[in-house]
Each structure stands twice: as C-alpha cells, then as structure tokens.
Amino acid sequence: MSRYAGNLADVQWLARCAWRLREHWPHADPTSLEEAAAELWHDESLRTLAPADAAITWLRRGIPRVDRTGGGEPS
Hints:
- By secondary structure, this protein is mainly alpha-helical.
- Helix content is 55%, strand content 0%.
- The longest helix has 14 residues, at 11-24.
C-alpha cells in the first residue's frame, strides 16, 4: 500500500498534486487546482499513487463525454 493512502487528506499529497496540475495549466487559479487535487484524493485508485503520477493519470483520462440525448450518463 502506498504511503499516501490514508483516510485523511494528506496535505503534502494535495500540494504536490496541485503543483503538478499547475505545470499543465500554468495560468489556472491556484485555488481551483487545489480543489481539483482534493477531488483526485477522493478517487481511491488515484490516492494510492504518488501525487504527480495521480495528476498525470487523471490528465490522461481526458474529459468524459456527456450524453446530450438526455440520458444523463457520460458515454
């Protein structure tokens, strides 16, 4: 198990993740990046990774497509 996989949000993990996201989006609002890092923390599969790896994995997932026919579920 990763040393980052605790029950409470690890402040260093969040800061490092936000820092990696900032490398991808240098002009983004820092608070928004911190909020994104906190969202990543809530994903258990990402939380078990090192912060930079979690950010990269999440970025590689891309933006999910939304079903515009009214189904409400991402496709």
